[in-house]
């Protein structure tokens, strides 16, 4: 687990924890690592989960399908990102989402009860972990509200411009790379891919933006 220390130091769960303390902490928490190949299912909707995951290497997506099999991408997971914490904290019997590896991945799993409960050696770091966990859940709730604002837009153009403008503000740059392919972006925005591609071309022609694959420049801000 020592080879993951540097990566985990960047996780929001361990904010404020020193590298030396983290090494001892991981043993106390019962952390374990699992490897997944690209397209492997990391978590399947309908299963029960009792641990939170942290991406140590690679990328993954949190997705959800409706009754007709239409897929929606809820979020993209990258190195040091935490996931599944809200469902575990809420005591959900079954998770409603699927987590899929979009590249070869290494995931660190930590039992949730080890994070929020005091251990036999009465480690002093549990208070920090609980505070960090509460902050992570609060931040993700804000981000989900922001996505709902995007999805509430009535037209594909409004969804695109709202999403791209928000992403630009989050990065602090007019030129940025989003974590989605065209198909994935359409799934994320819950729009038809062909209609979205036409709208992107129209926005470029009207001078709102420039793009190449998943790289964008907002030119009319």
UniProtKB/TrEMBL annotation:
Top-rank taxon, per record: Bacteria
Name the record gives this protein: Crp/Fnr family transcriptional regulator
Organism expressing this protein natively: Anoxybacterium hadale
């Amino acid at each position: 687990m020592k080879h993951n220390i540097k990566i985990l130091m960047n996780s929001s769960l361990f904010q404020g924890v020193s590298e030396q303390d983290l090494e001892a902490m991981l043993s106390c928490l019962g952390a374990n690592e699992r490897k997944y190949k690209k397209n492997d299912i990391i978590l399947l909707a309908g299963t029960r989960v009792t641990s939170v995951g942290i991406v140590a290497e690679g990328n993954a997506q949190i997705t959800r399908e409706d009754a007709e099999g239409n897929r929606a991408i809820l979020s993209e997971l990258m190195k040091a990102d935490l996931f599944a914490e809200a469902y575990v904290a809420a005591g959900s019997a079954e998770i409603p989402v699927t987590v899929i590896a979009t590249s070869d991945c290494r995931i660190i799993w930590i039992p949730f009860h080890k994070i929020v409960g005091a251990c036999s050696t009465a480690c002093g770091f549990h208070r920090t972990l609980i505070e960090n966990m509460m902050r992570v859940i609060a931040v993700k709730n804000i981000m989900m509200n922001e996505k709902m604002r995007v999805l509430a837009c009535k037209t594909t153009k409004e969804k695109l411009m709202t999403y791209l403008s928000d992403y630009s503000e989050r990065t602090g740059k007019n030129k940025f790379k989003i974590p989605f392919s065209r198909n994935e972006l359409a799934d994320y925005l819950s729009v038809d891919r062909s209609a979205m591609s036409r709208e992107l071309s129209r926005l470029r022609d009207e001078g709102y933006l420039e793009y190449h694959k998943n790289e964008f420049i907002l030119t009319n801000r």
